[in-house]
Amino acid sequence: MNIREKTEEIEKMVLSPYASLSVNSEGRDVFELPCELRTIYQRDRDRIIHCKSFRRLKHKTQVFLAPMGDHYRTRLTHTLEVAQIARSIARSLRLNEDLTEAIALGHDLGHTPFGHAGERALNAVCDLGFMHHEQSIRVVSLLEENGKGLNLTKEVLDGILNHKTSGNPKTLEGQVVRFSDKIAYINHDIDDAIRGGIIVEEDIPKIYRDILGDTTKSRLNCLISDVVNNSIGKDKVVMSKELEEAMMELRKTMFELVYTNPKAKSEEVKVTGMLESLYEYYIENFDSYVEKYLKGDMDTQLPPEFIKLHLELGEDKRRVVCDYIAGMSDQYSIKTYQDIFIPKAWKL
Questions:
Q1: What would the DSSP string read from start to end of 323-348?
Q2: Structural domain boundaries of the chain?
Q3: Cα end-to-end span (Å), the chain
Q4: Which one of 44, 172, 242, 262 is separated from 51 by 20 to 30 angstroms, measured CA to CA?
Q5: Mean of the pLDDT values across residues 83-109?
């Protein structure tokens, strides 16, 4: 019996009857021989951590665009906080921590530069629509590894696709991540907004501070404990009605105080204009890129791997352009815009 098989036996002995056992995974779209050391979900987690899209999250906005300071969250630190919360809940419920972590680490890989502002911009300008949770699936299933994708398990893909508020993950591990995402971003966005002088703690309505706590630490402990205490021994991950309602009302308050606050979001109109201009430019010039590529000229403004998605896999050019722009970091999208649209000083 190798190390992976021993781990699978341990899972059978110690995990909840409602946990997703590695040995019972529905598997991958493309069969692979099992690893001797790692379970199938451990391999998924490792593939996500080592992929390029995961590394680019460190240069993507969470809420505040280009904040002056080292301690504001990025899309990467948000992802890590979600993973930490999710693993804590999964461990307490004796669920599969490796599956939980893989879903958490992969849930935002499809996010655009500049967070939800970028997502709204692409969704508005592309008539095929754009949603980051669907884009995350494209990233891990197609865009990574030069069009081969990461070949993740069906359970991880389901959890990534259904992490949004309206999602309905099939596994309890996916349900844990769905709650953990909201618990993380509501609380760390409050923390960042206070740090940025957008709000003070007392701006949060007293009714929610009385129920959930009046510090980030106390709110996190309250919400995580509530999920655990209300889900033990159940075939579904749930919160108490009182705390879930309070959390969602606090989320609405954050939209009023922070997410739509002119002081915090004054630059987003520029983001919208920039990404829409980039999209329209690449669409307008797409056929010329294809023509150059077919002639063997690789010096195109759209990288050859994206042109190949259109030529070899039949992907719609509108979707391919969204793929390219969504994969950009904040600073790379700005530089690209400057290179295309901003005149440079003439010199010999």
A1: HHHHT--HHHHHHHHHHHHSPPPP--
A2: 3-265, 268-341
A3: 70
A4: 172
A5: 98
pLDDT of residue 340: 95
Q: How long a stretch of residues is the chain?
A: 348
With 70 as the cut, is the pLDDT of residue 284 above it?
yes
- pLDDT range class, residue 347, cuts 50, 70, 90: low
Residue 348 has pLDDT above 70, yes or no: no
Is residue 346's pLDDT more than 80? Answer: no
The top-level CATH class assigned to 3-265 is: mainly alpha
Residue 66 near residue 268, CB atoms below 8 Å: no
- This prediction has a pTM of 0.96
User: Residue 268: exposed, middle, or buried by beta-carbon count in 10 A (0-12, 13-18, 19+)?
Assistant: buried
The yes-or-no verdict on residue 323 having pLDDT over 70 is yes
Q: How far apart are CA 174 and CA 162, in angstroms?
A: 8
Rounded CA separation 311/215 (Å): 53
3-state helix, strand, coil in the chain (%, to 5): 65, 0, 35
φ, ψ (nearest 5 deg) of residue 151: 55, 55
Determine the Cα–Cα distance for residues 291 and 283; give it in Å rounded to an integer.
14
Tell me the CB-side half-sphere exposure of residue 69, using CA atoms within 13 A: 11
pLDDT, tens digit, 9 for 90 and up, residues 130-174: 999 999 999 999 999 989 999 999 999 999 999 998 999 999 999
Q: Which residues of 71-100 are buried (b: 16+ CB within 10 A; e: fewer)?
A: ebbbbbbbbebbbebbbbbbebbbbbbbbb
Task: Dig out the tokens for 121 from the structure.
Answer: 């911009």
Name residue 102's amino acid: A
Could you give the CA distance from residue 212 to residue 200 in angstroms, rounded to a whole number? 16
211 token code pair: 């129920």
Please choose, from the candidates 35, 87, 77, 88, the residue with its C-alpha nearest in 3D space to the C-alpha of residue 54: 77
